[in-house]
Amino acid sequence: MERTPKDAGITRREFLKWSAVAGSGIAMGAAGVSAILGLSQAPGKVSEAAGAGQIPMYGEHQAGIVTPQQTYMYLASFQITAADRPAVIGLFRDWTRFSDLSTRGGTMQSGDNKLLPPSDTGETLDLPASRLTVTFGFGPAFFSQDGKDRFGLAAQAPRYLKDIPRMPRENLDKTLSGGDVCIQVCAEDQQVAFHAVRNFIRLSTGLASLKWLQEGFISGGTAGQTPRNLFGFKDGTANQLHQTPEGYQDVVWAGEGEPSWMAGGTYLAYRKIRMLLEVWDRTPLSDQEDTFGRNKTSGAAYGAKHEFDPVDLGQLPANAHVTLAKQSGKLIHRRAYSYTGGIDPRTGHMDAGLLFISYQRNPDEQFLPMLKLMQSQDKLNEYVSHVASAMFACPRGLREGEYLGQVLFEA
Ligand SMILES: C=CC1=C(C)c2cc3[nH]c(cc4nc(cc5[nH]c(cc1n2)c(C)c5CCC(=O)O)C(CCC(=O)O)=C4C)c(C)c3C=C
Ligand SMILES: [Fe+2]
C-alpha cells in the first residue's frame, strides 16, 4: 500500500506554509531548520501493515492517559532552549506533525540523496503503528522560571502545577527530575516507541535539549490481566474503581477553575522509585503481603477472596500501602511501568524499580496528600527509595489541524 504525500509525510511546500504561519523558519537555528527539512521531505515507503493497531491521536483528550496500557513506554523530559515564542511554536508544530505521522504508522522519507543523512532513521520502515501513543505535558518552568515569564504564558499557568514538594524520605537526583516539556511515548513494539522518541529528540535540535529519558515495560500476561510489578504483586487493580467515562471525569480530567486550555487535560505526576530487590527477595511472604495488605498470588485484599472484591480496611495492617492509599479518600489513575537499569556500581545491587505515573485532575487534592501519607508511614518504604520526581500539565486533546499547545498560545 502506497500512501499519498499528505498521508505519509509533509511536503516541502507544506513545510514552507507552516513555517510562514509560525514564523519559525526565520527564528530557528540552522540545526533546527535542517532537522525539520528532513521531516518535510516527500513521503517515503510505508509498510503494508502500517495501519494496524492505530490509536487516534485526535480527540477530546490526549491518547496515552486512559488508553489501556501498552507494553513499552519512554518518558522524555526536555528543557526548551528556543529563544522566543515563535521558535517554540515552530518546534511544537514539527512535533505535532511527526506525532500525527508516526501514530498512523507512517515514516519520513529515507531519501535517495546519498550526500544527505536520510530523513527517517529507518528502524520502523516495515513496522505497523503498534498502538503508538504520544502524550505531551508542560512543566512549571515552562510557564515561568526564576520569576521570568519566558514565553508570555505565565498568566495561563495551570492552577495546581508545581514541582512536587520535598518529601521526608526521598533521595532525588535533580538531573533526572523536572523539565519544561515531557513526552510520554507508548507502544506494543519497543522499536516503534524508540523510533518515535529518537525522532522527537532529532527534531528538537537547537530548540530544546533532552534533560532525561526513562524507559519502562509491563508484563504482557494474559489479555485483560493486571500486570505484576517487580515485587511480583498485581499493580493497577484499583484503577477499575473509576474506569468509566463518569469515573474518568471525576478522577482524571481537569477543568474547573482552570485556564480554558486545561479543560479536558490532566496532571501527570511522576516518581522514579527504586525497588530494593535484594532486600525484598529475602523477605518472608507474610511480610511481603503485609506490605500491601493483599495476597501475592491472587491479588485479593486481606479478608477477601478475589482480586476485585471490595477492600475492608479493618482487615489490613494500618501501615499497609493499600490502607494508606485508601485513607486519603481520593482516587488517582495509575499508569506505572517497571524499569531495569543494570547494576548500581557502588553496591553491586540491581538498579530496578517502578516509573510511577499517575494522572489526576487535581494533584493538590488527590496525589499529594496520598504521597505525603505514604512517605511518612508506608511499610513499603523499607523496600523502596524515591530517586526522581516531576509534575506536568497535559493539555486537552488536539483537533485535526491544530498544533501542540496552540490552544494555550492562543488563549
Ligand atoms: C502516591 C501514590 C502512589 C505511589 C508513589 C505508589 C507506589 C508504589 N505502589 C506499588 C505497588 C502497589 N500499589 C498498589 C495500590 C495503590 N497504590 C497507590 C498509589 C501509589 N503507589 C494507590 C492509589 C493504590 C490503590 C489503592 C486502593 O485503592 O486499593 C498495589 C495494590 C494493587 C492495586 O490496586 O494496584 C500495589 C501492589 C509499588 C511497588 C510502588 C513503588 C515502587
Ligand atoms: Fe501503589
Automatic annotation (TrEMBL):
<feature type="transmembrane region" description="Helical">
    <location>
        <begin position="20"/>
        <end position="39"/>
    </location>
</feature>
<protein>
    <recommendedName>
        <fullName>Deferrochelatase</fullName>
        <ecNumber>1.11.1.-</ecNumber>
    </recommendedName>
</protein>
<dbReference type="InterPro" id="IPR048327">
    <property type="entry name" value="Dyp_perox_N"/>
</dbReference>
<dbReference type="InterPro" id="IPR048328">
    <property type="entry name" value="Dyp_perox_C"/>
</dbReference>
<keyword id="KW-0479">Metal-binding</keyword>
<keyword id="KW-0812">Transmembrane</keyword>
<keyword id="KW-1133">Transmembrane helix</keyword>
<dbReference type="InterPro" id="IPR011008">
    <property type="entry name" value="Dimeric_a/b-barrel"/>
</dbReference>
<dbReference type="InterPro" id="IPR006314">
    <property type="entry name" value="Dyp_peroxidase"/>
</dbReference>
<keyword id="KW-0732">Signal</keyword>
<dbReference type="Pfam" id="PF04261">
    <property type="entry name" value="Dyp_perox_N"/>
</dbReference>
<feature type="domain" description="Dyp-type peroxidase N-terminal">
    <location>
        <begin position="62"/>
        <end position="217"/>
    </location>
</feature>
<dbReference type="Pfam" id="PF20628">
    <property type="entry name" value="Dyp_perox_C"/>
</dbReference>
<keyword id="KW-0575">Peroxidase</keyword>
<dbReference type="InterPro" id="IPR006313">
    <property type="entry name" value="EfeB/EfeN"/>
</dbReference>
<comment type="similarity">
    <text>Belongs to the DyP-type peroxidase family.</text>
</comment>
<dbReference type="InterPro" id="IPR006311">
    <property type="entry name" value="TAT_signal"/>
</dbReference>
<keyword id="KW-0408">Iron</keyword>
<keyword id="KW-0456">Lyase</keyword>
<feature type="domain" description="Dyp-type peroxidase C-terminal">
    <location>
        <begin position="226"/>
        <end position="397"/>
    </location>
</feature>
<comment type="function">
    <text>Involved in the recovery of exogenous heme iron. Extracts iron from heme while preserving the protoporphyrin ring intact.</text>
</comment>
<keyword id="KW-0349">Heme</keyword>
<keyword id="KW-0560">Oxidoreductase</keyword>
<keyword id="KW-0472">Membrane</keyword>
